[in-house]
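S1.2 Input.
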Amino acid sequence: MDLATGLVTLLVAAAVAAVAPVLVAWLPGPRIPQVVVLLVGGVLIGPEVLGWANRPAIDLLANVGLGFLFLLAGYELDLRLFRERPGRLAVVAWLVTVAVAAATVGALAAAGLVRAFVPVALGLTTTALGTLLPILHDNDMLGGRFGRYLMAAGAVGELFPIFAIALFLGASNKFVALVSLLSVGVLALALSVVPRLIRGGRLERIIREGEGSTAQTTVRWTVLLLLLLLVVAGEFGLDVVLGAFLAGIVLRRWSPADVHSLEGKLDTIGYGFFIPLFFVSSGMGLDIRSIAEAPFRLLAFFVLMLVIRGVPALFLYRRDLPAIERVEMMLLTATALPLLVALAEIGLRNGTMLRENAAALVGAGMLSVLVFPMVAVMIERRRRAGEDPAAAAPAGVPPRAE
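S1.3 Output.
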């Protein structure tokens, strides 16, 4: 593919990314998540509709965008949560979801409706924490008790399926996959102790002195860390999302004194350029014809995502959260997309997933991102308005009390 074709595709994709927030602000009614607009924009410019862009031309940049999405999700995760009740309960909830998903998809496979048992079952256990974070931040839903439970549930719903993908879909030999998974984990652990080795030394002074200058040392080292773990994961036959998530966890240990400055820079790079390209590229690859030919397949996956991943939260968190917050938890944990895209691509690449099922699964994920967070935010705003009429406004909402 020549340079001119690649630049045209990049230009069109960048135009979609630039227009998306403007459309979100202009459209009437409840605010639609930007990711949905980016996906729809990708569909429009892709080969299925207008044919203005060629997806392979931006595949590399889109994969870096996927990496940034999961790096930021891993960075948000506080591993101490897993030693507390929110983390333990999140693990139990995910295991319940896995059992229900296995039974349901097994029945669908027996009926001949599903060919790729493992990718589809895993898809129904995921939570799009990386996609939800901007929405949750904008609506101050990450603070207090609810935020801790939600972050733990979202992290488990994103991290554990990644491990499962690496173990069951990343290599033909399960022992090799397990060794690869452990090797990448050991590397990440080793990288996490690097700051202790350089603490107080000349290298640390150089990095800290350069973080606010044109050298931008902390950003450059962060990108190096991300690309290193992406490459290592790819070389071991593991999905790149695992490497990206681990990079975010390691980065949390690397954070400089001015952590807010680094977060702002990473948000600028990730959400400003690379992450939108990933979602636009994903939309370009969506098989719209298959969805149009069998729309009920998409709706079936959409309902299954809510029932299998979301509904258990209503019962498992009954001692920890009030009913209205459990409904919000149900909706938010049932929201999935980036891993569905990855699972669909894996299933299509190895020939185990029907093309119509791959399209329906990703389409259901798009619909979940459009519907579930919007409903959860509306419920939260009404709850706050009931407690304090001044809290109904979207901007300046005070965080939840502990």
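S1.4 Remarks. The first helix runs from residue 3 to 26.
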